[in-house]
User: What shape does this take?
Amino acid sequence: MPPFFYDKKTKMKLKSNTLSVKNFFGIILVLFISVLISDKVQNQSEVFYLSLWLGISFGIVLQRSRFCFYCLSRDFIEKRNAKGLLGIITSLVVGTLGYHIVFGAFLIEPIFPQLPPNAHISPVSFVLILGSFSFGFGMAIAGSCISAQLFRLGEGLVSSLFAFVGIIIGFILAFRIWNYFYLNIIYDAPVVWFPHHFGYTGSVVLQLTLMSVFAILLFKFHKKQKKEEISFWWKIKWPTYVGGILVGIIGMVAFFRITPLGVTAEIGNISRNTAEYFNIMPLRLEGFDTLRGCITVVKNVFWTNNGLFIFGLVLGSFAAAVFSEDFKIQIPSVHEVKNSFIGGLFMGFGSMIALGCTVGNLLSGIMAASLSGWIFLIFCALGLYLGWIIKNKIRAN
Amino acid sequence: MSLIKKVTILIVFLFTSQLALAKSSALVDTNWLAKNINNPKVSIIEVSVKPGVYERGHIQGAVNFKWHTDLVDTVSRDIISKDKLQNLLRKSGVNQDSTIVLYGDKNNWFAAWGAWVFDIYGIQNVKLLDGGRKKWEEEKRPLTPLATTVKAGNIELTKTNLGLRARLSDVVAVAKKESNIALVDIRSADEYQGKIFAPAGVPELSVRAGHIPGAVNISWGKAVNKDGTIKSADELKKIYAAAGIDGSKPIITYCRIGERSSHSWFVLKKVLGYDARNYDGSWTEYGNSVGNPIVNLAGTVWGKI
Assistant: This one.
């Protein structure tokens, strides 16, 4: 192994600096599955294979860098450790630059009302605020947001499954109320894309300025942390900023080749099919197809770009977790099951009406220079903080 | 035989055999387009309807026309006006002497709509890329995501030939047997028979199912080969003749919204040279019209439980 990983300061006597065969089990499984389904996914026009591999890469990056929006926020709230949140900002900086480079290829000039294809630029309204707040609240209760539930499922976290039951029910509740929200609120809501108002250069400057302000605030409140123990190189977590850079790059590639990053489209499909099975799906979701967001509702399940992306995400996380000996089947307590389910309800409801979660709205929305992404960030953070307070109060009792 | 005579015969032979080889002057194949991709006299226009398809990869130099907004007038349910189309074409770098090549996704349906509209406004040298976007992709030919920049063109639209367009009154006359026009319904057999109101996954925009009385059913797909290219003129003649369409009478094509029938219109008019018109109101207009008879073999009634 390269000496680069060896830290002399720790003076740790490593018994063995080699991996055993079992560390590679997940990677072998990923390769095996990808070969197994390659015939079915190697379809030129749908770029399924690329979706699968982007999902795998995303899963590996999330797992290795612990790119969990709630956990990183909690580190900041409880320990004043801002490193995680700074990592998220890093991903937004890289993603913003990447997206604007792609914008220039797709649309030479950002002239209203032209929008780059599929970018998550959604209407800004009270519904978005409500959805973001509900989502933030839910992720605090459940212990992690939807993308983190997915990668933690790959790490063997069984309670994730209960969160997904809640998320799907939350989605269906949101479907039931959607038409009211759309006709009364969303219909008139503005869609704000910064390049329309400031041009591409102005948009990049504005975005980077906002990110710098957030970064400076985070640095101001950051407290020096205790050094982490150094262990075997394959167990070392990647710093969040490394994860952030990679997430930004994956985000740009996904937007460029397929569609922006998001993890809720496939959940929307599953929820719709579930609702139809129980005969509780509204006949139509008004205005739904005309909006830009992360949620799509089509009949196909699994064999969609997003279905394979999510499948890849869990697989990638599993492979990375096994490799780094993080994989452990964790059986939840009744209390954890309850929290996961209730948090899932709020997250499902919130992400459906907000047309995306922390990935589809916060990451892909902000990278796309959409006001909706920033609004999601702010109200999701407030919801998260409230959820954290309530959860602590309950725990104290 | 003198040498001159021999050479003349040879030239005539070569010329006519070349003509016979080319299916139609209204079609270009992917090889031709690949060779002419940098030809300044060739303007390439993509008309795809799936969002993001053009942006993530189009044929080099192609500009993007959006069917839903660029080629139709959404307010009056009409084709785009002459002035607007002229502006759009000039902005896309089309000159008076340009050759326009249209292509798109969905079997060239919407590209064919473009060809039909261009024909109405008397635009010369309009070609359809045989096999469309699908064939180009299947042949693994290059695509680029870079937006196309062009110098403004000088094309001028002067003529408007509304004779290429059939209106409701024209097809009602056929339904009432007051007209000698042959009607071709190019939708699927299930739509023609009235079993379904619209193809799977497409909104039902008509309250009646079935077809216009007197129409024969020749589904658009019968005119294309497996790879999406249009069949040879001889094959096409046989297919249409089998349903009684031999070019002896004027023809009107229709479908649901007029896009698939543009494809069949193109085949009948541009490949076979028949006198064909497209009824763009199609089934969404006729099927919903009040007081006009339909034939519904399946007997479906909308809303009946």
Summary: Residues 22-396 of chain A form one domain. Residues 1-6 of chain A have pLDDT under 50 and may be disordered. The CA atoms of residues 175 and 333 of chain A lie 31 Å apart. The radius of gyration of chain A is 21 Å.
